[in-house]
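Progress narrative, Year 2. Work on HIT-like protein from Massarina eburnea CBS 473.64 advanced from sequence curation to structure prediction during this period.
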Amino acid sequence: MNELDLHYPPDSCPFCGIAKAYPEPGSRRPGLQNSSNKESTEARAESDLGSLEACVPRGEVQGERTSPSSFVVAASKHVVAFLDILPMVGGHLLVATREHRVKVADMKEEEGREMGFWLPILSRVVAKVTGVTDYNIVQNNGARAAQVVPHVHFHIIPRPGTMPEIKSKSWTMFGRGQRDELDDEEGAKLAGEMRRVLKEELERTKASPKL
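Result:
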């Protein structure tokens, strides 16, 4: 077991709490084993994720179902995307595995494929909503690499023309100490706009994951 898991098990992981509050959409249809190989592959991709529309939550979970409170933009079979509650800048989005994986090396093949599907789409969503077309995608593995929550997640961080002052220019800039908490009203509004744009983006591209 990874040393980080010893003091941060899945049952107390905040990202696992968010994932549980937003269950995976769809379910596997019966009878797939009787389909042809091509039909089975296509049907499996569709049933594993459900419809892409179902991957975009209709509203936010209220009350104590998530810890910390979350503003979710997408929730699919293997991936959950939500606003960072301690953002470096507005629109700072986290894209995490649904299951508790500590490092990228711990991810399963299907999780990697689905992560690769969502990252470009969500990057476009962040750019359109914030109006900022330059951004960082950051992913840390382990405490010495500035990983604060030991659960695989990618940061999509817009880089506007004027960045907030950061005291330290080292890798610790991706830790918790440099940032302000996300206002609940602002977070709900921003997540809602991202979900709206995500639906438009999915409709525009007519994309579907191939798992």
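The longest helix spans residues 109-130. The mean pLDDT is 78.
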